[in-house]
């Protein structure tokens, strides 16, 4: 029954999965189980090929204090994987002619400082804006990030600062830039960022558990995060994450979102292609990052997606677009199972290697 429900969530197919995937599922299960102890924080994992789930399973505990086992349907904070939703929202507005990737951010934000005329929407999406990243300030995560802030308060501290580098000339990962994109989305659409994501992405795709990670509301199924020990995750006000990292989701929702995005069901195929293409700097160097998505190769195949970390959750959403493989891993602990990107690549590699035999 769970498999049938999962297939109905996926927009690409409702056909029966190949019958001889049990051996592959066992191999994937062995890879993950070797990393996570049953009595520690763990991971929910979903691996899909051609729209069919191969493995959907959880390992470890959702709550250590209460000894509650993790379930695949549990909800996790996804941190910077939110950026893929933000980039998708931007490209929706680009497709509708409401946003121009080459336009300066000052065209859309009246309060932006004059020197930001050099910064385009594309610069923000590709982390090449040169605008200082507030979350890199000394002490930010120990002090500022624990207090509630409005979106304007997340941006205004960098208004008077000079660029870290000339816009467009370097790559530097930047949460402030994506919060600026959230502000642009609100200005252009006339809708709150989270409401826009819900109305234009979440509801149309039938995603059941993707929403704002609001500290002031109960979120059914949300697991507890842990750092080393395990000890409780550091306190953090989710309002500081916003369009850069403020969503919660599940493995099912994230796989369905990725499949819909890559099939051109949310934004145009041309926009998807542009999102999936590594940005190239003026010196000819590829950054390995497109428009809101990391771009990499595994076994010669083209992988796209995004990962996230926020106290103390890790998320990884990747798709081998050449082979139709999606891997989603959501962790509620601080690397209790090792590096999440490495795990994702290991799982995708295992499925890639099985394709000929299946």
TrEMBL record:
Q: Where is the Beta-lactamase-related domain?
A: 38-349
Which keywords does this chain's UniProt record carry?
Answer: Signal
Which segments cross the bilayer?
none
Write down the superkingdom of origin. Answer: Bacteria
Cross-referenced InterPro entries, in alphabetical order? AmpC-like, Beta-lactam-related, Beta-lactam/transpept-like
Task: Tell whether Thylakoid is among the UniProt keywords.
Answer: no
Residues spanning the signal sequence: 1-16
Q: What is this protein called?
A: Beta-lactamase-related domain-containing protein
State the organism of origin.
Massilia glaciei
